[in-house]
Amino acid sequence: MDNTFSTYKIEDRSLVAFIKREIHNLALQAGFSVHRAAETDIIVAELTSNLIKYANGGEFLYRSREVDGHNEIEIYCLDNGKGIDNVVKIMNDGYSSSNTLGHGLGSIKRLSNDFQIYSRRDWGTVQYVKICEKADTTFPREKPGFNSAVINVNYPGELVCGDGYRIKYTSKGFQIFVGDGLGHGAYANEAVEMAIKAFIRSKAEDAVEILKEIHDGVKKTRGLVASIACVDYKTQTWNICGIGNINTRIYRGLENKTYTPYNGIIGLNIPRTMKSTTVPYLKHQIIIMHSDGLRTRWNLNEMMSIIKQDPGVIAASLYKDNIRGTDDATVLVGKII
User: Fold this and answer.
1) What sign for the dihedral angle of Cα 185, 190, 191, 194?
2) HSE (side-chain half, CA atoms, 13 Å) at 244
3) CA atoms within 13 A on the CB side of 33
4) Alpha carbons within 13 A on the beta-carbon side of 59
5) Distance between CA atoms of 334 and 145, rounded to whole angstroms?
6) What domains does the chain contain, in order, with CATH numbers?
7) What's the mean pLDDT in 207-232?
8) Is the dihedral of CA 271, 272, 273, 274 positive or negative?
9) Which residues pair with 181 in a beta bridge?
10) Which of 175, 209, 308, 300 has its CA nearest to residue 250?
């Protein structure tokens, strides 16, 4: 199933009707009732109206998917506007900065199954909305263990994505794959999809061995770059290795480290000798892995209180500030609680 987000730049109201119709149709196709689809329309209308009214436009990302037996629509609304000084205050019904009834964000929160907002003065705002087919479906804000979110978008104009990702749970822990097929479009997508299949089949526990198996499994494709991060619960360690330009960083408080990948192209030529990096797996770590669709000159420590946010809000904030717009883009964020 395609898990990529559709994305549109909204600078005026010309695209709003189209986006509302697209999401309405996605809701009906996902099994939403007519009433629930109408509630989804209200959420989209409020988000897009606020984007135009208060931020002079921004970017709107959305997708429909099935997770754990339920259907949902996810939306990210991003802007570079003047920001919000007091998020808690504006969430209250009746508060307005433009002489309206002031029910906008309150309505979004009531009608959605999950709503997160992060904003800073002179930086802008990130809003995340999850809408499920059943209005009473609830989600814990944070659950013990590994919590993750991914934003994955196609190169502009392409129907498929040349980036890919997968998280695989094993008897000993879990493994993360993030890959980027060379170029973009159908052939890049073929390479990364074959890599994901090889990753799923692999029984190896070391990141280097997994990469070697993927290399053997994609030789008939144009090739890709990828990084693997494996967690072993017993030893409480990360095992990390990459080939090509997938950026991998782990934060813990103010401390952070970038894990440099090897040069090469999986499926074409990889180093004869490689060694994975082993580091402690600790509570309160944040791992970030992204393709070169995002710039690499960013630092979470420069973003006030961002580490307190959900993984999806962190991913969206990095995407907002660093998207190149010249390739497929994937950013995966995981938090250990």
Assistant:
1) positive
2) 24
3) 5
4) 17
5) 10
6) 6-132 (3.30.565.10), 146-336 (3.60.40.10)
7) 98
8) positive
9) 224
10) 300
The reported pLDDT for the residue numbered 255 is 94
pLDDT of residue 298: 97
State how far the Cα of 231 lies from the Cα of 161, in Å rounded to an integer. 27
14 membership: H or E segment, kind and range: none
Torsion, Cα 106 62 117 66, to 10 degrees, reads 90
pLDDT score for 93: 55
Distance CA 179, CA 173 (A): 20
Q: In what order do the strands lie in the sheet with 124-132?
A: 6-10, 58-67, 70-79, 124-132, 114-120
Dihedral in degrees, nearest 10, Cα atoms 244, 291, 172, 239 = 40
DSSP string, 153-164: EPPTT-SS-SEE
**pLDDT tens readout for residues 167-211:** 999 999 999 999 999 999 999 999 999 999 999 999 999 999 999
Using the predicted structure, report yes or no on whether residue 66 has a pLDDT greater than 80.
yes
Q: pLDDT tens digits for 81-125? A: 999 887 777 766 555 554 433 357 889 999 999 999 999 999 999
pTM metric for this prediction: 0.94
Sheet holding 277-280, edge to edge: 163-169, 173-181, 224-232, 237-243, 277-280
| Average pLDDT of the residues in 219-241 | 98
Secondary structure in 3-state letters for 102-155? CCHHHHHHHHCCEEEEEEECCCEEEEEEEEECCCCCCCCCCCCCEEEEEEEECC
Q: Where are the alpha helices (DSSP H) in 30-119?
A: 34-55, 87-90, 104-111
Q: What is the pLDDT of residue 208?
A: 98
